[in-house]
Amino acid sequence: MNLKTFEELFDEIKVQTKNFHEVTPYTIAENSQRIAVFRTIMGLSAERFAKLCKRSKGVINYFERKKRKLSIKTAETYFKYIKIDPTRINKEQIVKRYKLFLDRSRKGISILPKKQQILFVKVGTKAALETRKKNLNLYFQATRKGLKNQRLTKQELKIVKMLSNKGISFQTHETVGKENIDIVIPNNIPILINCKCVRNIKNLTDHVRKLIYQAYRIKYYNKNIIYICVLGSVNEDLTKDKIPIGAMELIKEICDAYFIDENLNELENYVSELISITSSPNRLSVGAMGVGAPRRALRQGP
Fold it and tell me: Are residues 133 and 85 both part of a single domain?
């Protein structure tokens, strides 16, 4: 949402709620974009407000981008987390704060050349989509630069700490071909690690399927790559017996290894052993494996 729209929403709410003294769930239900005003008054970014509401950042961003009506039940879900003091609301300060949030969200754009910025600034418009089709390589270059500015997730931070403790060099948020990879370990045989932490284990199969398709696309052009996926759950510890059968079959089909909450501490030893073996002059052949026992999955070729 641009600054002008934000200011218009602020004034609209101010009049309707009598200087923010009569805010109700209906205030949000009438226009989902108003969420942006309230969380800015609270001094929260979209990401922090999403965590407070126990929702994903994508959901909050969607509501703020689209002017839509919400059911009272949905509005009440977000309203109970909104705590404001009407006597301390200053429009000038709130607008200035929102501008900081806006500038921060565009940080990935500001480092791009002017031509690449155009591809992102006009997101969603028909003209932008046509421009992207004509300039796919330019678009992918811009995507890569924006990717480097993303924050590491808790899952990724834990892995990064493990690798650092072992003295293993790595790169975060890199691209292999046109695929985004969370962690890349440069090696004779490159090691790619992609993470996925789900909110609902029932949806794990769909998320795993996306990781597997990505692995297929990467290995189609370069079979000499080791692909590892790390799975976790936000709401509970993910154990091997909780992984759906469909997801397990997909993992074993193409992944060279997978790790979950209960055995994530084994990842650093697994990677260390891989690097040790692949640094030898003998050729390495890596097969799909389950949790643990990397020695059983690795076999020396002639």
Answer: no
